Backbone:
């Protein structure tokens, strides 16, 4: 997927942040860490990079002045549309050789793995 994102000057890590911020505008960096399951320092670096590129902005939470909220800029929203098309294309490529039944089984297995590991992953990342 990195090869497809390269013309946009993005990586998979950037893509995941953009995608999550599109679906969860105003999240804090801690909440974003939980959504992406990445190390805090990696997320911090990627957010800074995306801010410098004009895709993400950080605002003070009006309800809690000590909390910072993350939002996509108009430029970030526009690039999200492009990366979603890339993701759909890559996802289709991954399962293209599978029958419909195998695709459903594959999706169910991934959901089960993710469900079983969700708490464990959060414990590791937040410790």
Residues:
């Amino acid at each position: 997927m990195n090869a497809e994102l390269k013309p946009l000057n993005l990586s998979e890590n950037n893509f995941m942040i953009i995608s999550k911020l599109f679906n969860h505008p105003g999240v804090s960096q801690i909440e974003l860490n939980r959504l992406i399951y990445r190390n805090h320092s990696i997320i911090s670096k990627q957010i800074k990079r995306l801010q410098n590129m004009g895709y993400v902005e950080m605002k003070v939470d009006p309800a809690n002045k000590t909390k910072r909220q993350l939002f996509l800029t108009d430029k970030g929203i526009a690039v999200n549309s492009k990366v979603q098309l890339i993701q759909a294309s890559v996802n289709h490529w991954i399962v293209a050789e599978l029958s419909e039944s195998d695709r459903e089984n594959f999706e169910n297995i991934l959901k089960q793995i993710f469900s079983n590991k969700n708490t464990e992953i959060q414990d590791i990342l937040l410790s």
